[in-house]
Amino acid sequence: MDEVTLAGQFLVATPTITTPPFARTVVLLLEQDDSGAIGLVLNSPTDLVAEEHISGIGEIVSLPSNVFLGGPVSTETAISLGRGTGVEFVRPSALPGIGIVDIEQVPDDLEDLRIFAGYSGWDPYQLESEIDQGAWWVLFPDLDEIFTSEVEGMWERTVARGPGTLPLYATYPPDPSNN
């Protein structure tokens, strides 16, 4: 029997996750199988400007041109996520036209590029357990959100597009005790 994978989906932190690095995050899940899961936090830009650390990408890197914190694992490692048709990716994702590119050899037909420091990782069945416990909502991805220049408010926009009553949480305050 084939296993169902969540690769290519958005993981959206529910309000039960209240501490960094995952509070109010939207994670693009790149891989998920019985060996674990790997994703990139899409809405956590750092103060580092990508061009200052990786020369030659200034014109192709998507705005904001900051390095994003992809997650708490291997934050000293740069991961380059790109979008383009006909691009040969080092590691294609489950989403059409999106994958990991070699930053040393940026493809000419690349439309978007985002640089991440580190990634988010889960041990085997850890993510599934967290989802069962209500820590994450699994939502269909909005491809435009992956490379949006409007990073602020991504969590709220993503939740607002969710099914059923999920959009009610889009106005959920970061700290309900201040409500």
Describe it for me?
- The chain has 179 residues and is mainly beta.
- The chain has a single domain, classed as VC0467-like (3-Layer(aba) Sandwich), CATH 3.40.1740.10.
- The chain has four helices and ten strands.
- The protein has helices spanning 50-53, 126-132, 143-146, 154-160, and strands at residues 10-13, 26-33, 36-41, 45-49, 66-69, 73-83, 91-92, 98-100, 112-122, 136-139.
- Strands 1, 2, 3, 4, 5, 6, 7, 8, 9 and 10 form a ten-stranded mixed beta sheet that branches.
- A hairpin with a 2-residue loop joins strand 2 and strand 3 (36-41).
- The protein is globular, with a radius of gyration of 16 Å.
- It starts with 9 loop residues before the first strand and ends in a 19-residue tail after the last helix.
Structural class, by secondary structure, is mainly beta
Number of helices: 4
Question: What is the helix content?
Answer: 10-25%
Q: Per the principal axes of the C-alpha atoms, what is the gross shape? A: globular
Low-confidence stretches: none
Number of strands: 10
CATH topology: VC0467-like
Looking at how many chains there are and whether they match, the oligomeric state comes to single chain
Q: What is the CATH class?
A: Alpha Beta
- Name the CATH architecture: 3-Layer(aba) Sandwich
Report the sheet with the most strands, covering strand number, pairing sense and barrel closure: 10 strands, mixed
Report strand %: 25-35%
Number of domains: 1
Name the CATH superfamily assignment.
Answer: VC0467-like
Look at the structure and give the mean pLDDT: 94
The span between the termini is: 48 Å
Radius of gyration: 16 Å
- Elements, N to C (H/E): EEEEHEEEEEHEHH
